[in-house]
Design goal:
Helix content: 25-40%
Strand order of the largest sheet: 18-19-17-16-22-23-24
Radius of gyration: 22 Å
Number of helices: 17
Structural class: alpha+beta
Largest sheet: 7 strands, mixed
């Protein structure tokens, strides 16, 4: 049977998307399902990997059946996943506890110990990343200290995509793009730093074998085929970090190109051809060999507006039902009615602490400048602008180490909003292009599968065949002047409130 399709599994923070693409990048079927996020204590954020697999399996079966796709026509499978998920598994690949997510902040004590033990400057010089409890290394140390029985039973530490790859193939893997989660991963050499691992007391045999993201790890097993509706023998590549796959799916394959992320979390990824280390940013391998991504990862992305919709959006939900529109389309119209700067309403999008460039797990969201004449529309636009300010903060930080930022390729749910995308263009002063945004991450994973299976001869060929720009937003420089004044206030607010965030945390 001729091969016609590529299957992608995109394991996100809020849900799993399964999509089937033809070799030209067109979506032939997709399905999205959710799973529970657990918050057992303050700062603890967990998900159950077994639920990931159940949802992924359901999604694969559903996409195949509902779209009449014969699994024998699938050439290969690619998997992407969220960053910094810490999953200890035993020798049978069974998770020994729930996964600690990137949002999990419990390991602050262990992060502080790492700084004292090895020196933060030294760790950054090797790994390219700050020492923060969001990363995997402090979580491994937390497990060792607080759940020693589980730590002793751990055979390998897996991450989100590598766990699904294991479930599909029975093979352990660690792709390069997710290596940066471990502070003993040398970001320049692409290998483990034995001395630092020994210093931190983490045996390297707990790490899975390293793979390039497009390399085939194994093939679908008979057991996995039975659980998913696939057939055995389909090649499965290592896959990679969701942000890196999204960057590939956005068409970023050359140095200087930049992807702007408008998913649940926000941020940007600038492709560079050599490691550029900034202690306040994130540096990882691209899913393209011998290329790196200098990244800004923020907590506040489209999840900020999702929060508003869930907690305060009853009007928009009702209005949307009456008019046959989504509540987010109503919010777009409301935001459009307010002038740039939201008449002095400023939003700090630190809804679960913040990652780059402030790295403050105790920071919290703030709406500043409320008055009686402010409306719901003001709040909605200020949320969009606050996320835009966090993007600019990361871009400016990247430029401090010589990163060149040109046109931004914007993807994720927020990229569907023309209003929000224009706000980001006006705030940053950058031209923003929007490719096929809803499926960019899945497309990136599918491209990796296609390259691994020989469907495409190169990344250039793959992108030229699959990535298409839908629209372009040019910055309005008059609006940009207004935003500059408010951006200065935005930066100052955090500095003024930093101690108050600390006090609030202690009270709680």
């Amino acid at each position: 049977m001729s091969k016609k399709y590529l299957l992608a599994v995109d394991l996100g923070t809020s849900g799993c998307k399964v999509a089937v693409f033809d070799f030209g990048g067109s979506v032939k079927g997709s399905w999205t399902g959710g799973y529970e996020t657990y918050y057992p204590h303050t700062g603890y954020v967990e998900q159950d990997p077994k639920e990931w697999w159940q949802v992924a399996g359901q999604g694969i079966r559903t996409v195949l059946e509902e779209n009449g796709i014969n699994p024998g026509q699938i050439a290969a499978i690619g998997v992407d996943g969220t960053s910094w998920a810490c999953i200890p598994v035993d020798r049978e690949g069974i998770p020994l506890r729930p996964a600690m997510l990137w949002l999990d902040r419990r390991a602050q004590k262990q992060a502080d110990w790492m700084k004292e033990r090895s020196g933060e400057d030294r760790l950054i010089s090797v790994n390219g990343n700050p020492v923060d409890p969001a990363y995997i290394t402090p979580k491994v140390l937390w497990l060792k200290e607080n759940e020693p029985d589980i730590y002793k039973r751990t055979y390998k530490f897996l991450q989100s995509n590598s766990y699904l790859v294991y479930k599909l193939t029975g093979k352990y893997s660690q792709d390069y793009s997710q290596g940066y989660g471990f502070h003993f991963f040398n970001i320049s050499k692409g290998d483990w730093e034995k001395d630092i691992a020994h210093e931190l007391g983490i045996p390297l045999d707990l790490m899975a074998p390293l793979y390039h993201s497009h390399e085939v790890v194994g093939t679908v097993t008979a057991e996995a085929a039975q659980e998913t509706g696939l057939i055995s023998g389909i090649p499965v590549v290592a896959g990679g970090l969701d942000a890196a796959c999204c960057t590939l799916g956005a068409g970023v394959i050359n140095p200087g190109q930049t992807q702007e992320q408008g998913g649940q979390a926000g941020g940007m990824s600038i492709q560079v051809d050599h490691p550029l280390i900034h202690p306040k940013l994130i540096l990882g391998y691209h899913v393209i060999p011998n290329q790196w991504l200098l990244q800004g990862g923020t907590v506040g992305g489209s999840g900020t507006l999702r929060w508003f919709n869930e907690q305060l959006g009853a009007f928009e939900q009702l209005e949307g039902k009456e008019r046959g529109m989504s509540p987010y389309e109503i919010m777009d119209q409301e935001a459009q009615s307010i002038s740039p700067g939201s008449d002095g309403l400023i939003f700090l999008p630190y809804m679960a602490g913040e990652r780059s460039p402030i790295w403050d797990s105790k920071a919290r969201g703030v709406i500043f400048g409320l008055s009686y004449h402010k409306t719901r529309a003001h709040m909605i636009r200020s949320i969009m602008e606050g996320v835009g300010f966090s993007l600019l903060h990361n871009l400016e930080t990247a430029e401090e180490v010589g990163a060149e930022v040109g046109v931004l390729n914007s993807v994720g749910g927020a990229a569907n909003s023309q209003v929000w995308t224009q706000i980001k263009a006006d705030i940053t002063g950058k031209t923003i292009q929007v490719p096929f945004s809803d499926h960019a991450t899945s497309l990136g994973a599918a491209i990796l599968a296609g390259i691994g299976a020989g469907v495409y001869s190169s990344f250039e060929e793959a992108v030229s065949k699959t990535v298409r720009i839908q629209r372009t937003h040019e910055p309005d420089h008059e609006a940009g002047k207004v935003y500059r004044a408010y951006y200065k206030l935005y930066l100052g607010l955090y500095q003024k409130l930093k101690d108050s965030f600390e006090e609030l945390y202690e009270i709680q």
